[in-house]
């Protein structure tokens, strides 16, 4: 009998624990940064995607995020930032920043992703990058000159500093208005990540209107 009473008590305690856990509010799918980061364009709500050309998850995110970016309202500024954790991350990040500075990134972004993810090109050496990009209409000599320029070195420092401020540990990661950080996994999937971004953009828009009144 004593054993039955103890067992019943343990079952009751277990059920109570399960009920208490169920009553707890679910964890937010995003992290609010302790120290908000300044946006690139004051007055606009910023959405940042940190990515790496060598990341298969980033590549899979492309056909989902690109149509979303094209439909963003005029008060939202979308920014891609390469995550640079050393080695090929840095090489690919420098390539992205170079193409962006040359004003051709949007034209060859998909081709670079395909080359690395589908054709298994490494594109780590700058000369290999230049040779490949020449097939996409990018001036080889201009690319190499820009790649090693002082301006690009400054952009590399800036990108790395932003990644530290955002406290990212992987990609693809999104940041909304320098305040909220989440990734595709924490959001529950690619579509859910963009739905979450929309909600946070709406939240910031409402906050801006309230502050203006």
Short description:
The protein is an alpha+beta fold and 213 residues long.
Q: How would you describe what is shown here?
A:
Helix 3 (about 90-100) runs antiparallel to helix 4 and helix 3 packs across helix 7 (about 150-165). The chain has one domain (about 30-210): Glutaredoxin (3-Layer(aba) Sandwich), CATH 3.40.30.10. By secondary structure, the chain is an alpha+beta fold. It has nine helices and five strands. The protein has a five-stranded mixed sheet, sandwiched between helices. Keywords: Disulfide bond, Periplasm, Redox-active center, Signal. It comes from Pseudomonas frederiksbergensis.
List its traits.
single chain; 213 residues; alpha+beta; Glutaredoxin; 5-stranded mixed beta sheet; 11% strand; globular
**CA(first)-CA(last) distance:** 70 Å
Largest sheet: 5 strands, mixed
Count of beta strands: 5
The residue ranges in which pLDDT falls below 50 over 5 or more consecutive positions are 4-22
- The CATH superfamily turns out to be Glutaredoxin
